[in-house]
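forwarding from the other thread:

> can someone predict this with D-serine?

sure thing
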Amino acid sequence: MNFLQKEDSEIYNSMKKELARQQTTLQMIPSENYASSAVLEACGSILNNKYSEGYPKKRYYQGNEFIDEVEITALERAKKLFGAEHVNVQPLSGSPANQAVFFSFLSPGDKFMGLDLSCGGHLTHGNPYNFSGKLFKAVSYGVNKDTELLDYNEIRILALKEKPKLIISGFTAYPRLVDFKKFQEIAEEVGAIHLADISHIAGLVVAGVHYSPFPFTDIVTTTTHKTLRGPRSAIIMCKEKYAKEIDRAVFPGLQGGPHEHIIAAKAVCFKEALTSDFKVYAQQIVKNAKALAETLMESDIKLVTNGTDNHLILIDLRPQGIGLGKPAAMALEEAGICTNCNTVPYDPSPPFKPSGVRIGTPALTTRGMKETEMKQIGEWIAKVLKNMNDTSVKQKIREEIRQLCAQFPIYKEI
Ligand code: DSN
């Protein structure tokens, strides 16, 4: 960062401190990861300088010969990686990608179904403060109150009653496998479009450690920076018959010039995700999450659904009387463990004061940590949660975490 250091010491210094934070603490927010240096180079590249409204070979601006090469490479790699019929790599991030899908198939006021936020749904799946809940009529489904699992029979009954135009599957805080085939069958039965939002689990899907929504799902959206470990962005994939609607909804419907530096970074990420090393990585994410979940449960920490099948774990703080999610996440941060507070199913507290903490293993797995480290980290998390106001406990763990992080360096070369 030589140029930045010379030209803007304020931003340079903030970035240096953030780098140290990422290196010396445990990044356990399940939607975060460490992108490779190659991905970061593409993000910070001269492709930033180019406007390219339109699609490859059909641009409104001149000078896009090499931009087309980049975007076509990204498209081809994404198709191969996911087995998708059609891909749009231009969405700026996950929410705009989902927005484009709504605008492709729904008119304002139309009804759709998505998972309730408290049960693990995303803002764009029908939250009343989000465009999805404001412009459209959201009918939320939940999870079973006892098992905290999706109940496909209940979802089907609700869909038959409500007859939505769109059904969304895929979540931000559901620690179990999702049966996309069942969602597609329900959607077909009621004549709805099925949108699978696989943002959290895309890396697991391409590695074959989570069910894939391909080839049967109508539309699939995913961000590219979570388990997929690419740049902060998103893509939309669909059956060929929906290609025109989706492309038109992204441009000119919703966006202007695409961010081709980020599209280049997505292409790099797809190449990385096509390797056998990535499969091993994704398998390890799940092994690590299971090992961590076991240690937490052995330490009497209650987990939503009593475990995990994917990369994330949701701690329910209520049974232990630990308190609310925000102070718990703050105590963990003081000890060097970065998580986020989160709602638990049917949370009696409001979303800005939720009763849970969400943790995940994608970033730690990128650092090379395995089951042994997860066991240690699980013990630390339990200890902090049971001694939230004890500064000496948090300081001791903070120091031990600093030592652990030094054994698993990240971004040595920056
Ligand atoms: N903010 C993301 C997450 O943390 O799950 C979803 O968009």
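The first strand starts at residue 26 and ends at 27. thats all i got for now
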